[in-house]
Amino acid sequence: MSQPHLRTVVVLAAGEGKRMKSDLPKVLHPMLGRTLIGHVLTAAAPVGAERTVVVVGHRAEQVREHLSEVAPQATPVLQERQLGTGHAVRIALEAVPDATGTVVVLNGDVPLLRAETVAALVEAHEGAGAAATVLAAAVPDPTGLGRIVRDGAGRLERIVEERDATPAQRELREINAGIYAFDLVRLREALGKLSTDNDQGEEYLTDVFELFASAGEPVAVHVAADHTETLGCNDRVELAGLRRLLRDRVNEAWMRTGVTVLDPATTWIDVTATVERDAVIDQNTQLQGATVVGAGALVGPDTTLIDTTVGEGASVVRSHAVGAEVGPQATVGPYAYLRPESRLGRKAKVGTFVETKKATIGEGSKVPHLSYVGDATIGEHSNIGAATVFVNYDGVSKHHTTIGSHARTGADNMFVAPVEVGDGAYTAAGSVIIADVPPGAMAVARGQQRNVDGWVLRKRAGTAAAEAARRAREGASDSGATASEGD
Ligand code: UD1
Ligand code: CA
């Protein structure tokens, strides 16, 4: 039984998807980390196909370009006019003239299909030695879909499109998911015999089943246990519905591995993201792309992480991060923006209203408040004062700032790059640092303060400020008496 099978995968993706009303081809619409066709190709992976052929047509260039990124091994085949699913498969098989064995055909717009289901379909098909096997499901609402017509003994007779169906056939709830396994050689032969004698004047792939059945070739139905896997996507309302189903499926899977998802209805985890045990994902949170959340980390609420790594026990609260690395036990937010190449070491802190970009913030170092850190390296255990700006851009080029370890920089500093502050150095509040500060020095780079005594009393006489100043002065002159009264 376990002799190797030659296998081919064909994905149908030439249609326009008119009801999406989109400039983007339907199969390129994104859904939790992959495009629709990306999900389908992933589900087809366990087939282990020698060749994968994707039938493209509508906006073929865009689809080709996407395929070159996500499935470079796939061969795109152009179907210039969409003359039906049978026509599409016929063209696809012309690209693999020597292929034999099993061919798995998938609609490009059925993104919830599970890899295990495809594997089970192929196994059932090959195990039974069938000429054709269709994936079917009993659905609550079969509107618009092809129906599985069985004979008195429950054997597949034919698949009929809704528009070609009799009223009695329309009552059938068992539908064709648009996913099939065929014996390739027999399919190639049958495709040559398809007619266009139907309501749409198209070559229907589904008619192959009737051809086989009436010729006594074995055909089979493989029923999907979870009918949601077979749902297609025709408009954006359906797309939103599929996205919700996938969200729930993904959240449930993570919860079963030991992740706490506080509000699954508002937590959107891409299929490409990873969350480790005992992490807590709070509400309104999106984990996108190659994001990894480490064990015991807290992310959210109201947080979006894109291609970001969060270390064990770290926390990221009400923040947005793209291409960032947050070290173990580091803390981010509330309200931080980590841009690409932000790297926070263990126990580092990026606090409230802080933006970072191309910045390495070493172990235990803190940027707690209201700051911009761009093109910078900060050593370990340093503290950056509130409202600091790393002035990295001279209007033409970007320059780098280096702050050493155990430094203490004052509030409201400007570090005008390129500049370097040494280990253990201090800078005074309000300084504009334009020259390097040696290790251990205190840099003061601001105007000397000058108090013009009595200016308000003279220049703003009669104002509330002058009155307040006068009272303060009188109070000060007899403060000794007041204090001795024990107030
Ligand atoms: C098809 C099936 C129907 C099934 C449904 C499941 C046929 C005749 N009908 O119907 O029984 O219930 O899928 O979703 O097959 N495509 C091409 N070239 C073409 C025509 C279609 O590449 O010439 C592609 C489309 O882009 C799409 C897929 O094939 O990805 C299915 O085509 P679609 O027009 O949506 O078929 P349905 O009418 O939905
Ligand atoms: Ca369809």
TrEMBL record:
InterPro entries: Bifunctional_GlmU (IPR005882), GlmU-like (IPR050065), GlmU_C_LbH (IPR038009), MobA-like_NTP_Trfase (IPR025877), Nucleotide-diphossugar_trans (IPR029044), Trimer_LpxA-like_sf (IPR011004). The active site is at H369 (proton acceptor). It is an enzyme of class 2 (transferase). Binds 1 Mg(2+) ion per subunit. UDP-N-acetyl-alpha-D-glucosamine binds at residues 12-15, 26, 79, 84-85, 146, 161, 176, 234, 339, 357, 372, 383. Pathway: Nucleotide-sugar biosynthesis; UDP-N-acetyl-alpha-D-glucosamine biosynthesis; N-acetyl-alpha-D-glucosamine 1-phosphate from alpha-D-glucosamine 6-phosphate (route II): step 2/2; Nucleotide-sugar biosynthesis; UDP-N-acetyl-alpha-D-glucosamine biosynthesis; UDP-N-acetyl-alpha-D-glucosamine from N-acetyl-alpha-D-glucosamine 1-phosphate: step 1/1; Bacterial outer membrane biogenesis; LPS lipid A biosynthesis. Its EC number is 2.7.7.23, 2.3.1.157. Residues 9-143 form the MobA-like NTP transferase domain. Acetyl-CoA binds at A386, N392, Y393, A429, R446. Its cofactor is Mg(2+). Residues 258-487 are annotated as: N-acetyltransferase. Residues 237-257 are annotated as: Linker. Keywords: Acyltransferase, Cell shape, Cell wall biogenesis/degradation, Cytoplasm, Magnesium, Metal-binding, Multifunctional enzyme, Nucleotidyltransferase, Peptidoglycan synthesis, Repeat, Transferase. It holds the Pfam family NTP_transf_3. This is Bifunctional protein GlmU. The gene is glmU.
